[in-house]
Design a protein that fits this description.
Rossmann fold, Pept_tRNA_hydro_sf, cytoplasm, 7 strands, 197 residues, alpha/beta, Peptidyl-tRNA hydrolase, 6 helices, 7-stranded mixed β-sheet
Length: 197
């Protein structure tokens, strides 16, 4: 199904969400950056600072032209850099794929979808506002709910636990595979492959 592909035929913008700087590098909230770093390794390039406010890498993935972008703003302001990068590279909303952490999924679970709400995720809220609509693709990486009464906002700014870190590289790799499948084969095929039964 051609309409199932992000930005059918055109260039695709892959935006990974996180907070900039070493202090946040290992946080659950930064899993989008980790996945984009894995994809950059597969493409074989290095991110460069771009005037749109993101670190950007152009290349090919799954036989298509892609632009990888990691916003240099904080998570709550991700929309400006994502929309600015999309405008610069002439990618419309249907060609934008956002990789982000998701509290409502068990750790390491993946869900891919087109559109939907922001589910309390400030990065998504900012992107929806800046892009002027919700109809962009999301690749959701489960980080699970916080234990006990911990505030979700504090939880996502903590590093992955020792136990989680054992599986982290594998889960990041699998998420990068899911992004690649979405770009190359479309949403339905990628969902069928990566959604747990």
């Amino acid at each position: 199904m051609e309409q199932d592909l992000p930005g059918a035929g055109e260039q695709v913008l892959l935006a990974g969400l996180g907070n900039p700087g070493p202090r946040y590098a290992g946080n659950r909230h930064n899993v989008g950056f980790l996945v984009l770093d894995e994809l950059a390794g597969r493409i074989g390039g290095k991110f460069k600072a771009h005037k749109a406010g993101a670190d950007v890498l152009e290349g090919h993935l799954a036989g298509r032209k892609v632009v990888l972008a990691k916003p240099r703003s904080f998570m709550n302001l991700s929309g400006g850099p994502v929309a600015g990068t999309a405008r610069f590279f002439k990618v419309d909303r249907s060609g934008v794929v956002v990789v982000h952490d998701e509290l409502d999924l068990p750790y390491g679970a993946l869900k891919l979808k087109l559109g939907g709400g922001d589910n309390g995720h400030n990065g998504l809220r900012s992107i929806t506002k800046s892009l002027g609509g919700k109809d962009y693709y999301r690749v959701r990486f489960g980080v699970d709910r916080p234990p006990g009464r911990m505030d979700p906002a504090d939880y996502v700014l903590k590093d992955f636990s020792t136990v989680e870190r054992r599986e982290l590289a594998l889960n990041v790799d699998r998420c990068a595979d899911a992004v690649e499948a979405l770009v190359g084969s479309g949403l339905t095929a990628a969902q069928n492959q990566f959604h747990a039964g």
